[in-house]
Please model this.
Amino acid sequence: MKPRVATAWLGGCSGCHMSFLDLDERLIELADKIELVYSPIADIKEFPENVDVTLVEGAVANSENEEMAHIIRKNSRIVIAFGDCATTGNVTAMRNAIPLEEVERRSYIELADKNPRIPDEYVTIAQLLKTARPLHEIIKVDVWLHGCPPTADQIWFAVTELLQGKIPVLPPAYLRYG
Model:
């Protein structure tokens, strides 16, 4: 049975997933070795149970991200903080220096084209958390994959180590930020 692998995108830019796609021809080799059971690059609506490895891109920036992080942890044997936003908060957490009320006023009032108002019901958008936080502050993380974004080689190294049953110990050259 092939390992069940998932990727998820929280509060980030999708750059880590773009690097994942930069695996290029190695994606074909990887496709023979894993079952991709959830990803923003696949049309799967609900996070499945019994996932072996999940790579999580992005910081936890809103209520939807926080809920998804808990679902991922509950259903994943190994969780990887995938890139610097998941690892440290990085660019997503730059808003943390500004009070949430100012962020909301700027976003929903000052920059609004129509109907300027701060939401009081969160039906179509998720409520921002007071601060954007790295993944490990919300759930247990097993592996950190640094970089903004991690390179395709870093991703390949981590995934192939996991496929061999090893927790990746990243070489010093891969322990970089940005």
User: Anything to note?
Assistant: The chain has a mean pLDDT of 94. The radius of gyration is 17 Å. The longest strand covers residues 51-57. The helical segments are 15-21, 26-33, 63-75, 84-88, 100-110, 152-163.
